[in-house]
Amino acid sequence: MKLIKKEKEPSEWETYRNTPGVKYESKPYLRKALYKEQGGICAYCMQRLKNEFEIDKPSTNRIEHLKSRDNYPELQLDYRNMLLCCNGQAKEGKNDHVYCDRKKGNKEITISPLDSNFIESLSYHYKSGKIVSSYTNWQKELDDVLNLNDSLLKENRAYTFKGIYKILNSKGWKVSEFKSLINKYNVRNSKGLYEPFCEMIVWFLNKKLEAHHKQVST
Prior knowledge:
By secondary structure, the chain is mainly α. The chain has helices at residues 11-17, 28-37, 100-104, 116-120, 136-145, 151-171, 175-186, 198-217; strands at 62-65, 82-85, 89-92, 95-98, 122-124, 131-133. The chain contains eight helices and six strands, in the order H-H-E-E-E-E-H-H-E-E-H-H-H-H.
């Protein structure tokens, strides 16, 4: 996951929220505000959010309430309680994959992409693509509630790592290339979007750069 910094709610939502008697509805302008806020990546798995601005395709993205609407109805209109997630399901041959908020449903979790302490607890396995938290309880939520170590997600992360390795191998693992890639994946592109799995890649590059500096200093 990547740390998300909540911005001001869209003015249309503020107007809607202050209308007496209204209940939560997934408004297109609400999804688009969350999409821009998150740089076009899923709040949980960091894959690209699809079909949000395409005119001829309906959005498949889902607005997630960190505190569920059923359990916390008083927070159903609170923009700070909302994230945008991917569709959360994929089919691979005969296998169905369900993850992110579609898997979570109304279950309560203590992990959050708004929590810097949680984000800092995360690491990634290069070969397997597994996401790991240094805290057992958080790991259980990653695995059992969000299913972020679904085999398809791990495969996609491992494939991304292979691509980074390929780039670094072609450049001779130069420090300048590390810094260039960190800058690329740490910031939004010209369209205001982050690259998929950007936080994972930056974590990996920083680890490798740190190891290089240690090796040079000894």
